[in-house]
């Protein structure tokens, strides 16, 4: 954006339109020579009070923003947004494309604030899931028995789609409330369960409120790593539950970090890495197309559809990937050059964790442990099983695990 362009006001507006705006926001809109927004937002402004030229956002929006604002740099501009522009709104896109220092955000109460006010829910105790330009599978990771969720819908069909998804995934008893046109004269509340949701379409401007109820025969999934093995579709290529929990503890995911999950198998490490925080990212590298497709299905089923799957053999498939914060190697350790490629890809402070059950790969890990330090452990898990009329222990194959944090080069 040209440095000569002045600060751009971003004005939040609700379903109550002009009447609901404070005088500060009205003053900005009255004096703007150019008003930019969605058609619905622009239609809420009275022509007599806001005579500026009205421009609707083009599609796709993001690449057009700098040029559109630059084209009107000699005129006063105001941008319209729904509710709070900084909450899943246009303010983020504008800040990322033209710089936060160019913006003056004038928020209106968000739809989530309105919904909590109507329902009597404490805002800080409610999780919000956006389905705007996101698949329904994004909802799965937030579903926990007794949990309250607010869902931002993409259009009039979203409530019916969410209800169908809940029925299909074992959450049919969930209470679904749709709050339409919040704050406006046509505000309305619709209330049913997912199992008996009656409407195919609602008003496009809405928020869904879910009181989550898990069906009795639906598998319970916790919020920490170590999900039940039966939560995954797999062909036996699966890091088992207790080893998986120990592996995620060694990887130590933090918000915003990126993991490479090499030899993805069923994708369990990448899936549970991403479930630890909504901003965590993962790339699973798997050479088998069949297993790669299975990883995608597992990611969808467990609520992390943004997990990226690269169908390629390592290390060849690693060359173009973004720099990771952590790498997990769950298979293919003996592939020529793999360990070196992973080590070289890690930045200082990055973590690498590798698991193996074979002597050949164990020898490689022992060598790297001598060269780079870290921690070398053996994980052994035994499960109680019937032995005749008694109970005994069945030992799983022990797993050797090397974990290390890369230090700055001397």
Which structural category fits the helices and strands? alpha/beta
Q: How many strands in all? A: 19
Which overall shape is indicated by the principal axes computed on the Cα atoms? globular
What would you call the quaternary organization? single chain
Radius of gyration computed on alpha carbons: 26 Å
Helical fraction: 25-40%
What proportion strand? 15-25%
Largest sheet: 7 strands, mixed
Q: Termini, distance in Å? A: 41 Å
Spatial strand sequence of the major β-sheet: 13-12-11-14-15-19-16
Low-confidence stretches: none
Fold and architecture overview:
This protein is an alpha/beta fold and 410 residues long. It has eleven helices and 19 strands. It has helices at residues 23-31, 39-42, 65-71, 90-98, 111-119, 158-168, 241-251, 268-275, 289-301, 338-345, 359-372, and strands spanning 8-13, 34-37, 53-56, 77-82, 103-106, 127-130, 148-152, 175-180, 188-193, 206-211, 258-262, 281-286, 308-311, 326-329, 351-356, 375-379, 382-387, 390-395, 399-405. Strands 13-12-11-14-15-19-16 form a seven-stranded mixed β-sheet, with helices on both faces. A five-stranded parallel β-sheet has the order 3-2-4-1-5, sandwiched between helices. The longest helix has 14 residues, at 359-372. The chain is globular and about 85 Å long. 38% of the residues are buried. The mean pLDDT is 94.
Topology, please?
Elements lengths: L7 E6 L9 H9 L2 E4 L1 H4 L10 E4 L8 H7 L5 E6 L7 H9 L4 E4 L4 H9 L7 E4 L17 E5 L5 H11 L6 E6 L7 E6 L12 E6 L29 H11 L6 E5 L5 H8 L5 E6 L2 H13 L6 E4 L14 E4 L8 H8 L5 E6 L2 H14 L2 E5 L2 E6 L2 E6 L3 E7 L5
Parallel strand pairs: 1-4, 1-5, 2-3, 2-4, 6-7, 11-12, 11-14, 12-13, 14-15
Antiparallel strand pairs: 7-10, 8-9, 8-10, 15-19, 16-19, 17-18
């Amino acid at each position: 954006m040209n440095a000569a362009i002045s600060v751009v006001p971003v004005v939040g507006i609700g379903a109550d339109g002009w009447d609901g705006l404070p005088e500060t926001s009205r003053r900005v809109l009255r004096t703007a020579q150019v008003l930019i927004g969605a058609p619905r937002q622009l239609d809420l402004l009275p022509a007599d009070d806001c005579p500026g030229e009205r421009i609707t956002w083009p599609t796709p929006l993001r690449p057009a923003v700098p040029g559109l604002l630059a084209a009107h740099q000699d005129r006063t501009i105001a941008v319209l947004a729904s509710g709070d522009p900084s909450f899943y709104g246009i303010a983020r896109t504008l800040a990322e494309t033209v710089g936060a220092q160019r913006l003056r955000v004038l928020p209106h109460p968000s739809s989530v604030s309105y919904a909590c006010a109507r329902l009597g829910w404490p805002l800080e105790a409610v999780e919000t899931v956006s389905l705007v330009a996101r698949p329904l599978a994004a909802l799965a990771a937030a579903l926990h028995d007794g949990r309250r969720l607010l869902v931002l819908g993409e259009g009039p069909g979203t409530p019916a789609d969410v209800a169908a998804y809940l029925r299909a995934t074992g959450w049919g008893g969930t209470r679904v409330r749709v709050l339409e046109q919040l704050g406006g004269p046509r505000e309305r509340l619709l209330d049913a369960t997912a199992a008996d949701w009656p409407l195919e379409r609602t008003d496009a401007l809405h928020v869904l409120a879910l009181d989550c109820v898990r069906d009795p025969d639906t598998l319970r999934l916790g919020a920490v790593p170590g999900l039940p093995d039966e939560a995954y579709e797999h062909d036996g290529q699966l890091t088992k539950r207790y080893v998986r929990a120990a592996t995620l503890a060694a990887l130590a995911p933090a918000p915003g970090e990126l993991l490479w999950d090499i030899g993805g198998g069923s994708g369990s490490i990448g899936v549970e890495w991403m479930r630890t925080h909504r901003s965590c990212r993962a790339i699973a590298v798997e050479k088998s197309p069949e297993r790669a497709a299975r990883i995608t299905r597992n990611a969808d089923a467990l609520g992390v559809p943004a997990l990226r799957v690269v169908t390629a053999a390592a290390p060849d498939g690693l060359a173009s990937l973004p720099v990771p914060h952590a790498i997990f190697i769950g298979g293919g350790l003996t592939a020529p050059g793999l360990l070196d490629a992973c080590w070289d890809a890690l930045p200082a402070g990055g973590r690498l964790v590798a698991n193996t059950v074979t002597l050949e790969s164990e020898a490689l890990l022992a060598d790297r442990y001598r060269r780079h330090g870290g921690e070398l452990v053996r994980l052994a898990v035994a499960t109680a099983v019937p032995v005749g009329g008694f109970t005994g222990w069945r030992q799983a194959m022990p797993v050797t695990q090397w974990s290390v944090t890369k230090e700055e080069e001397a």
